[in-house]
Amino acid sequence: MFKVIPTSVFYSIIFVLVSLPFGITISILSGLVLQLQSNNILK
User: Fold this and answer.
1) What is the tens place of the pLDDT at every residue in 8-36?
2) Between vectors from CA 16 to CA 2 and to CA 9, what angle results, nearest 5°?
3) Which segments cross the bilayer (predicted)?
């Protein structure tokens, strides 16, 4: 019973640590794609 609580907290912390950089990279990639598309349209 005592082991269940730390593991859930552990997984939630891992989820936050994994999802934060993932969201940042997605936003950066989407920004780069938008820049490339605008550059192609301008050309």
Assistant:
1) 888 899 999 999 999 999 999 999 999 98
2) 5
3) 12-34
